[in-house]
Structure formats: structure tokens, C-alpha cells
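Q: What would this chain look like folded?
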Amino acid sequence: MIRAIHSGNGQGTGLENGRSVRIWLYFICLLIFGMVVVGGATRLTDSGLSITEWKPVHGVIPPLTHMQWLEDFEKYKQIPQYKQMNLGMSLEEFKTIFWWEWAHRLLGRTIGLFFFIPLVWFWVRGRLQPWIKPRLVFALALGGLQGLIGWWMVSSGLAERVDVSQYRLAVHLSIALILFAYLFYLARLLKWTARGEKITGDVNSDAFTRMSWAILLLLFLQLFMGALVAGLNAGLTFNTWPLMDGQVVPSGLLAMSPWWLNFTENVMTVQFQHRVTAYVLTGLIAFQSYRVMRGTGNLDLRKNAHWIAIAGIVQVALGVVTLLGHVPLDRALLHQGFAVVLLALCVDQLVLLRGAKAPSFAALSPQKKEA
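A: My prediction, written as C-alpha cells:
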């Protein structure tokens, strides 16, 4: 973790350079947000296996002639998903699922180009502060790894399954969200360093920072479990709320053997743990927001706490209406996309707690209360 960062006086460390780099990173985050939403649509429409080959360069060009379409359709007909789920599908129906997967892959390639080319340009022009260079190289490597993970995920559904592995889907989504959070974190840090300000944590706010980290990690766990729900189509079952299968705690949560498989393969258990974690996460967010609102007069941090609390409630509500509606595409994508918004707010809270203007929280200090 970056404990202290100072902006130098050399080329590329001024306010304008910092702003341009920050805008670039925000734009990449926006593209990743779009990638997550399009990826969700690809999963929900069962489109992810429509392209059965991985062609990182040549795959940019879709089929252009009728014969090319027939060739790709014939390749799709060889996999279990077509034989067991879509037997008799027309060419036009195939085109629909093909375009979703093609758009998803094209967006991934676009993110790579929009990250790599400006990175080289900013680097050569001396517009990157020294501290951020290795971090951007790491982000570039993580993005490349994400592309490999995407094909690793798709390949799991081409031979013996009719869909991709829920484990690989969860890893794929998690890496995308980690990359989003990392780049957003760097962009928010640049807000301070571009002004020549010191970034440091306030020693009196350590407890709040630890809670903020706990919320962020729990949110990542919840997002991972949400991917398991999607991978198992668990949202299409037990479509009632607040009870599940007519009970607060449904029976059959540990029906599979060995018992630990239930948490990743039992449809009931996977959905139940996603529900429970949502309640716990919302409670922790509300508690943290209440403490922050009481403990500081910092307007940026108070606004952040206010919006996180609202976003947490909205996200739970979106999850409920998505479940009750048997996972309609529009609600499901809104639920998945809004999760990224909540993630961004949680990341921003960490930056604000560590920022130069972070408050002391003296009002909540035990020593102050005893005095």
C-alpha cells in the first residue's frame, strides 16, 4: 500500500498532466464497467460459447459473407450446448448470440489498446509520476492475464458441459473487478498528487480504515458469490423473498457430499449465502457510514458515506426485484452494473480516509471520551 506520495517538480508532475492521466484512467474504468455489463448479458443470453475459437487478432473481424457465417455456425453445432440446448437453432438465432460474444471480446481488445497506447505516450512524454509507472505496468499485465482467463473460461464449456464452469466465470469476473478497483484507486490518488499534496493516512482513523477494508473485501467475496449464482443459474430458483423455499433458513443447504461442495455447487446454498452476505454487507456499510457521519466534518468523506449507504440499500433492492422477476435481462444487468458503482464508492472511501484532508475523528477517540 502507498503510505506517502509526493509530487515532484519535473516534467509530467504538474496539475495538467495529472488531470490528463486521471481522465484516461477514469475512461478505462468506464470501459471495464461496460465490459462487465456486456459480459453479464453474454452470460444471461447463453452467448458465451457461440465463438468456439480464440483468435486474439483475426477474431476482430466478424463473418462477412454468408459462407463465413455458415462455417462459424457449423463449428458451434459441434459443441454440447448446441446439441443439448439449441438443437435446430436457425442461422439468424445463432447470429444473435454470436454478436453478444463478439462484442464482449471486441470490447476487451479495445480496452487493451486504449490502455497500452496512451500508457506508452504518457511514458515517453514524461507525463507519468515515477511512483505510478510500475503500478500501471502491473495493471497492463493483469489485463493481459484477464484475456487468457477469458479463454480459459470459455474452453471449459466446449467439450463436456453446456455452459462454462461457474468457478472460472467467478475468477474471470473477479479479476475484471479487481482491475477496475485498482485503476480507480490510482486515479483517485492522482487527484492528490497532481496538486503536489502528500497522501498519508491519519493515525486516528485506523479503525475506520480497517472497517473500510473489511467492507471492500466482503464486497469482493459477495461479487465472487454472485458470479457463482450466475454460473449455476441459481437466480432462476427459489424466487421468493424474504423467505427462501418457505423458510428463513431452508433445509437442504448441506445436502451434497462432501459438505464443502455445497458452497459452490449446491444451487440452494449458493443463492442462500449470496443473500446472507448481502444482509451482512449492508449492515456493515450502514454502521461504517453512521460512524463516519458522526466522526468527521470533512464534506468529501461525509458525502461518500452518505452515498455508500444509499448504494448498499439500492443494490439489495435490485437483487430482490431481479430474483422476484425470475432474472429478467434488464434488471439483472442493472444489478450487476450497480455493483460496480458500489465498488467504486468503497474504493473512494479508502482514498479519502488516507488522503491529505482526512479527518482525525477526534470526536470518536476513546481518549477524548474519557477526558
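DSSP finds twelve helices and no strands in the chain.
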